[in-house]
Recover the amino acids of this structure.
């Protein structure tokens, strides 16, 4: 794969694009901000402006001219509500169909697609929108997989560097979700796993991308606050058990050869 496009060079997409450039690929990347074009180009990325409202505005056709495309578009709702993100994907895929090409696609989805089933969940637990906690994600996934030459990656909570879970609850009182297990992935591992899938494509497959270990939120919050100097939150016993899910990465681990940098969320690398 000589040319790879990263549609959405945000918090995950930009370091992914940088890593691919360093690995010797020619990399195209999109941003919604004209101010960011210079930054991307300084990093060796062939940068293009693209917005999906949900119709594409910008240089989509150029971005689609690639051997592989990573679709990393945050599923923000627009005026159309929950259908906004699936519409973005429909327009993108329609533009791809017009090119007549069939690049390998990786679609970055989310583990928020799973309902809280109070057990371990695997990829087959959600296949159709009616099974999903986020039907829009499931619809978008189905549309991408229908292209044939595509893989879906369901990412857990993306953390690391300045994204510190304990920071967001510092000093809060009476948290009742302390016993809930986390489903996190460090950004470095997210980048590494996408790159591993590009090197060893898995068309037609869906994978969970989470760290193998699932400590409790309380354990993570306490460690973050103690190590980085945030005010500790307090915890309370909930009146009713808090629903949860434990997202399994077993299918991914059995399919590709990848060694996690941070298998345990209690040992993630952060910067204050």
């Amino acid at each position: 794969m000589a040319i790879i496009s990263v549609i959405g060079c945000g918090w995950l997409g930009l370091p992914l694009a940088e890593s691919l450039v360093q690995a010797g690929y020619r990399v195209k990347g999109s941003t919604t901000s004209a101010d960011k074009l210079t930054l991307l180009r300084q990093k060796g990325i062939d940068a293009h402006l693209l917005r999906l409202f949900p119709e594409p505005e910008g240089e989509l056709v150029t971005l689609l001219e690639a051997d592989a495309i990573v679709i990393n578009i945050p599923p923000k709702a627009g005026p159309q509500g929950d259908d906004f993100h699936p519409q973005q994907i429909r327009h993108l895929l329609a533009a791809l169909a017009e090119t007549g090409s069939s690049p390998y696609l990786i679609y970055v989805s989310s583990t928020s697609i799973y309902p809280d089933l109070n057990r371990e969940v695997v990829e087959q637990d959600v296949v159709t929108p009616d099974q999903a906690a986020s039907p829009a994600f499931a619809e978008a996934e189905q549309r991408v997989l229908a292209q044939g030459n595509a893989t879906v990656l369901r990412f857990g909570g993306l953390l690391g560097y300045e994204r510190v879970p304990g920071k967001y609850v510092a000093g809060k009182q009476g948290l009742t979700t302390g016993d809930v297990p986390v489903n996190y992935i460090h950004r470095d591992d997210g980048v590494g796993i996408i790159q591993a899938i590009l090197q060893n494509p898995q068309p037609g497959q869906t994978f969970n991308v989470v760290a193998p270990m699932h400590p409790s939120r309380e354990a993570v919050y306490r460690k973050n606050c103690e190590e980085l100097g945030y005010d500790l939150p307090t915890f309370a016993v909930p009146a009713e058990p808090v629903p949860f899910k434990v997202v399994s990465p077993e299918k991914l681990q059995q399919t590709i050869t990848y060694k996690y940098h941070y298998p345990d969320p209690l040992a993630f690398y952060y910067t204050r």
